[in-house]
Amino acid sequence: xxxxxxxxxxxxxxxxxxxxxxxxxxxxxxxxxxxxxxxxxxxxxxxxxxxxxxxxxxxxxxxxxxxxxxxxxxxxxxxxxxxxxxxxxxxxxxxxxxxxxxxxxxxxxxxxxxxxxxxxxxxxxxxxxxxxxxxxxxxxxxxxxxxxxxxxxxxxxxxxxxxxxxxxxxxxxxxxxxxxxxxxxxxxxxxxxxxxxxxxxxxxxxxxxxxxxxxxxxxxxxxxxxxxxxxxxxxxxxxxxxxxxxxxxxxxxxxxxxxxxxxxxxxxxxxxxxxxxxxxxxxxxxxxxxxxxxxxxxxxxxxxxxxxxxxxxxxxxxxxxxxxxxxxxxxxxxxxxxxxxxxxxxxxxxxxxx
Length: 354
Description:
The protein is an alpha/beta fold. It is 20% helix and 29% strand. The chain folds into three domains: 2-93 and 222-285, 3-Layer(bba) Sandwich (FAD/NAD(P)-binding domain), CATH 3.50.50; 94-218, FAD/NAD(P)-binding domain (3-Layer(bba) Sandwich), CATH 3.50.50.60; 314-348, no CATH class. The protein is built from eight helices and 26 strands.
């Protein structure tokens, strides 16, 4: 909306959203519990305030039920809307394996999910199992531990962030988590979760062990809901396929950005490129000159105070990592292809040498 309004003050814009439309910074969800923040603290601007400021029609708590590219109709629970241009920014939803029933697991992917977890933990220290050792799981596990809860981090891999980090870095992260009091359980698979008579959650592990906790948080990745895209005939490959320069989909008049898209067959689920995507999309939708969006691997920063991690570039899963420096405070590594640096990695505190 911001990018469109910056180009055209009079363009009629309608925002359809299943939530209230309140504006907040999503990365703060994984550090807010230990800061003692509430949902109200995280909201930077209410949906109604933002709508008035930008001059848009807001349809909050409204769900899309269908999309017909011809004759350009969007069906919602509050009626059918006609459009000239349509932007899909519907994000991605947590991917819950069958072993993690929705009724027994929290998912922290939006303010509503985070608020529910916060309320469930409001009575004091609790036993919490976090399932998944990716970025979200690692950040939430630390945040929960710093907020005073007893945290078990359950991961299928030998060390956290195994799909992103070389083993030397992953082992450092594992040691840092345990030093904070997180009970990290590597190489385990969850076979199921149920609730016992006392209201506790019983996590059944594949090896037969049972872990009794108060709450379970699922951090097992994201998936783009394909229903709307397929109904409208949009190309879909793990996300809504868009042109890498204009963010246009395969159907004229429909654009997409954010967590729901795929560029060159790869999902693009990062916060950092959103502003650049929005600027390029707005120019393309309004047919204004613009060099277009240029997708590049964003800098990945793990928001863990115990052990900050920064990854830059596009790592090659088949290339070797080389240690540049290694001491008790910091680990520096990089991948090279000839003279070209593919990726760099910084693990720990301190400042990297020039």
